[in-house]
Specification:
The chain is mainly α and about 325 residues long. It contains 16 helices and three strands. Helices cover about 70% and strands about 0% of the residues. The protein has a three-stranded parallel β-sheet, with helices on one face. Strand 1 (about 285-290), helix 15 (about 290-295) and strand 2 form a beta-alpha-beta unit. The relative contact order is 0.10.
Length: about 325
């Protein structure tokens, strides 16, 4: 098992997520042309493209979330809520899927739909919650403690957006932010929200969710970006400028990706693995590092991903630890 295999899995899951979002748009009566533009932009922009090329849980969580939204719209409530619970167990950010559910319910449900969703979905929710606590071997108190622990590292309620749009290297996403804000202004000015009820509710409710969840890692913007893309396409459609929107993002992003390839294309994973193996002595002391480092020590049973270092109590269990140099959140 190598990083290339892991990336292949992530790429497949990210593609599957985009497929389900295209099915969502078809359900919302979007044209094939606009749906194709959505797929093009989703696969071009960094949030989804980046998740497809990382050894992180976002691709899996995002694909489960996307499938859950589609099945919820198709009134397969048991399956949808079960998938939503699996997404939340995969990563806490998966809980945002319930805000998508509520957005669609507000935009489309009749009174009987509410009752039907509650009756069919409640057993799935109970089953999903039981599965969550069983597989994590956690108490409710521990879950609350973990949530509060994660929130303390978020500098602001909108930390995810500021990290992505403002603080990424070379401020490369600022042009995207300008386009997005311009489209948001036109979306409101032309009252597009009146004809795009699900999109409008989802934009508002997921932004509220970002305040409640309060996470600061840029990668989490993936859960919001399908809505941002939908909004930009809706505005471009008003002016019949869909092609211009596609060309604009090609002009913005292709030079960035070419620069990235030029700068990092020579990275040799095998050489990196050999280097850190030589640096860490052969003994029983645990090793803490990033997911990339796991490939060097997956056979040793000593490796611990930094993401599980959730408290000072964890470190206190060991007299010694090896920490592989790299970027880590401020734990």
């Amino acid at each position: 098992w190598t990083r290339a295999h892991a990336h292949l899995v992530s790429i497949t899951l990210a593609g599957l997520a985009v497929f389900f979002w295209c099915k969502v748009l078809h359900h919302l009566d979007w044209s094939y042309k606009d749906t194709a533009l959505f797929a093009f932009l989703a696969l071009l922009l960094e949030p989804i493209l980046g998740a497809a090329n990382l050894t992180r849980p976002e691709a899996l969580c995002f694909s489960l979330l996307s499938a859950a939204i589609f099945f919820f719209m198709k009134k397969h409530y048991f399956l949808a809520i079960l998938l939503a619970c699996l997404a939340t167990e995969t990563h806490p950010m998966g809980v945002i899927v319930f805000f998508f559910f509520f957005s669609y319910a507000l935009s489309s449900f009749s009174e009987s739909d509410w009752k039907h969703a509650f009756l069919i979905g409640s057993p799935a929710l109970v089953l999903g919650i039981l599965y969550f606590f069983w597989i994590n071997n956690a108490s409710l108190e521990k879950v609350i403690e973990t949530i509060q622990w994660g929130r303390q590292f978020a500098p602001s309620p909108f930390g995810t957006f500021s990290e992505y749009f403002i603080h990424r290297a070379y401020h490369r996403h600022v042009p995207e932010l300008i386009v997005l804000l311009a489209c948001a202004a036109l979306f409101i000015k032309h009252k597009v929200y009146e004809s795009q009820r699900f999109l409008s509710y989802a934009l508002v409710l997921t932004l509220i969710a970002s305040v409640l969840i309060k996470r600061s890692d840029y990668i989490y913007v993936i859960y919001y970006f399908p809505l941002f893309i939908m909004m930009m396409i809706s505005v471009a459609k008003l002016y019949r400028k869909e092609f211009v929107l596609a060309i604009l993002f090609l002009a913005l992003l292709v030079p960035q990706y070419l620069f990235l390839w030029w700068k990092q294309g020579g990275f040799d994973m095998d050489q990196y693995i050999a280097k850190i193996r030589r640096a860490v002595p052969e003994n029983s002391i645990p090793i803490i590092g990033s997911s990339n480092n796991w490939f060097a020590f997956m056979q040793s049973g000593r490796f611990i991903d930094y993401g599980v270092v959730l408290s000072p109590e964890f470190v206190e269990k060991y007299d010694k630890l090896y920490l592989i140099e790299g970027y880590y959140p401020p734990y």
